Amino acid sequence: MMSGTVLINCSPKRRLSASGFLARCAAGLIRGEKRVLQLRTPADHPAILEAIRTAEKVVFVTPLYVDSLPSHVLPFMQKMEACCRENRLRLKVYAIANNGFIEGRQNEPLMRVMENFCARSGLTWCGGLGIGGGVMLNVERIMLTVLLGLTALNVVLRAAQGESPWEPLRSFAVSAGELLLLACGIIALMLRLAYHVNRGTDAGKRYTRIMVPSFLFILFADIFFTVVSVLQGGIFRGWLSRLKPTGGCEPAVSGKQ
Amino acid sequence: MKAIIHDLGTEQNMRLRAAADLVICADGRYAPCQGCFRCWTRHPAACVLKDELREVCRVLGMCEDMTVVTANLYGGYSPAVKNLLDRSIGLSTPLSTYRGGQMHHTLRYGRKGRFHVIAYGTFTEAEKQALRLMAESNAVNMGFREHSVAFCADAEEAGGQA
Ligand SMILES: Cc1cc2nc3c(=O)[nH]c(=O)nc-3n(C[C@H](O)[C@H](O)[C@H](O)COP(=O)(O)O)c2cc1C
Question: What is the pLDDT of residues B50-70, one digit of tens each?
């Protein structure tokens, strides 16, 4: 008897990926047996293929890389296609994609690839969710976790001094509320997707984003990358320049001389 | 300058050299992108992975036109070709702007000419449509003014068209 859901986290990042976060959120909303598995290297393939053989549904949770799936996911999909055809697996496939830019719609080419993959593999494509502003979502949820820790500490220290814990709690609630507001589209559509996964029905394709106007989002993104680039030093190493190949590490390229 | 990125193997690689200033054979030996963005924030336009693709974006940046020859995979590119594109995002900078009515990164090497995709293999109609959308999206993303897609039956024919 086939049952259960396998969620595949397709981010190459070991920790703190947006996809990992979204996969855990989705898993929390999905009923029945479920597993979140990470797909980073070919060494991860056997365990995932093993898991999907007895599953009923698979959810790909992935970042968008250059308008499609990250390259390391593609060989896995080829293996999965072969495995599904060989064993006549009839899985239902869903996708949750997140991208850096604000428009969730930029995930459309990726969704088409997923749909074509299902067609070739004899699987049922049940639709997906494309989320714009994934980096911001990820930064926000990490900051909120840190803030939660600081708030807890603050409350304990205040309690020890006999002070009221309301002030730090109130300011945490405001921050959390802001994040929930920014993510309201994502939350609503994640709930909707989970509802369809639970029923095994077609969710269709939906796109959403962090609820910030794009010009503001661009401003935040520019500030974010500027700060990171100052900290990591890239800003002093030809940050925006037309850097030329150093020759020290020429790629395997060739051409007419 | 024109660049060709292809997954046709070494034999065709020799022949293609005559057709372009720069030919890159995506042979699937390279490690995939790790998603760290250090090619923007730590050592611009150079990858943390110290293999031969480390500065591939700098080499591609010198080219005006780009032709991608790839096996069709679900209406997208082959793993080897896609790997090369993922490893090339240093072509743009970490700063953002609007291009084609959507948010995109500003271009380290400026606007470019034509992005041409030659896909080979068998295709469903949906895969052809997906490849057209993929080429269009990539062209805007990477700052090309024009894009086009050709479909070929096999690698031989695709190599001949490049
Ligand atoms: C190589 C590479 C290519 C990317 N290409 C795009 C892109 O074409 N469009 C986009 O909106 N975001 C793009 N991004 C941004 C990622 O989608 C974004 O960082 C995402 O939140 C990463 O998710 P993760 O934390 O689950 O890995 C790219 C990132 C990398 C590393």
Answer: 999 999 999 999 999 999 999
